[in-house]
Design goal:
This protein is mostly helical. Helices cover 91% and strands 0% of the residues. The protein contains 2 helices and no strands. Helix 1 runs antiparallel to helix 2. The longest helix has 28 residues.
Length: 57
């Protein structure tokens, strides 16, 4: 997993957590769902990169 893709997926997870938190705090369901989706996408991207790295060895 190279540094660029790792950083990109970590920032996506962080942005998702922030959005989800604001959605929960304000009661905005759409914002909460968008945050959850962003967090999940970042985690999936990280898992995919880890799987690729495992198969390269």
């Amino acid at each position: 997993m190279d540094l660029g893709s790792k950083l990109k997926s970590k920032t996506q997870v962080a942005k998702g957590r922030i959005k989800e938190g604001f959605g929960r705090a304000t009661g905005n369901k759409r914002l909460k769902r968008e945050g959850m989706a962003g967090r999940v996408m970042g985690n999936l991207r990280q898992s995919g990169e880890k799987a690729k790295a495992a198969f390269k060895r």
